[in-house]
Amino acid sequence: MICKDDDPIVSLETRVAGWLGAEYLACFTSDEKMTLHGSSKAFTVPLEHAIAIGFIGGPFSPVDLDASLSKERQQWDVVDPVGEKRNDYQARVNLLLKDTNSHPAAIQSVKPMLVSIDRLDERIFVIVSIREYSITKDGDSVRSIKATAAAHVLQGTRLVRLEIVRELRTPSDIEDIRMEIAAWSRAASSMTAEEPRP
Q1: 3-class DSSP assignment, residue 169
Q2: Contact assessment for residue 132 and residue 109, using Cβ atoms and an 8 Å cutoff
């Protein structure tokens, strides 16, 4: 469903878009929910949300997409890679998930882990990562592990960023959002609508 204007994620993503030199276009959340457990309370959150932002400026070309990809690779170069080619990939994801409900109040946020950076075609590249969050709410702390798939997409002469964020329950969630972002970004690359929908 479309995010409501007063949803905290809308104000957050609007600020993030401004920081990236872009404008907020749309936000969607899943109807499916997930429960996160704190030390004394449980919190229900959407299983997944998706964001679309459009970069200000242009017209954009494949040269701009290449420059964006190069910049992203440089930024991720200092982050721990966890690509599927590593023998311990599944073990590391499972260990991360196993600890999700263990003493969540004592866990601090950590650096994101890079899963992959892929060029789908001349108009799209996708970054998949895992990030751990420590969230404090109503005096309680919860630990959240999220898988993120973000795509930069050339939509004619417009450059948009599409992002899907999912609460990570099993390693298969990573492949699921990778397929979702690929389908959404390919559809968006051929659209001219103002709000690319997942």
Answers
A1: coil
A2: yes
3 state DSSP class of 79:
coil
pLDDT digits (tens, 9 = 90+) for 89-111: 445 555 544 544 444 333 345 66
What distances in angstroms separate CA 136 from CA 141, 143, 183, one per listed residue?
4, 9, 34
Does the pLDDT of residue 146 top 60, yes or no?
A: yes
Please state, in angstroms and rounded to a whole number, the distance separating the CA atoms of residues 122 and 139.
Answer: 48
- Collapsing DSSP states into helix, strand and coil, what is residue 139? coil
DSSP code for 109: P
Instruction: Identify the three-state secondary structure at position 19.
Output: helix
Peptide bond between residue 104 and the one before it cis (omega within 30 degrees of 0): no
**Structure tokens, 188:** 């968006």
DSSP 34-57: EEEEBSS-EEEEESEEEEEEEESS
Identify residue 29 by its one-letter amino acid code. Answer: T
CA 181 to chain centre: 10
Answering whether pTM is above 0.85, one says no
**CB 141, CB 22: distance < 8 Å:** no
pLDDT tens, position by position, 65-76: 999 999 999 888
Query: Are the CB atoms for 160 and 54 separated by under 8 Å?
Result: yes
Nearest of 72, 50, 31 to residue 165 by alpha carbon? 50
